[in-house]
Amino acid sequence: MQMPNFPMEPRIGLGDCSITRLRQGGLCLVQTTDFFYPLVDDPYMQGKIACANVLSDLYAMGVTDCDNMLMTLGVPQKFTEKERDKVVPLIMRGFKDCATEAETQVTGGQTVLNPWCIVGGVASTVCMKTDIISPDNAVIGDVLVMTKPLGTQVAVNAHQWLENTEKWKRISAIVTYEDVERAYQEAMFQMARLNRTAASLMRKFNAHGATDITGFGILGHAQSLCSQQRNEVNFAIHNLPVIAKMQHIAKAVGTMFRLLQGYSAETSGGLLIAFPREQAAAFCREIEKVEGHTAWIIGIVEKGNRTARVIEKPRVIEVTTKLK
Question: In percent, how much of the chain has pLDDT > 70?
Answer without folding.
Answer: 95
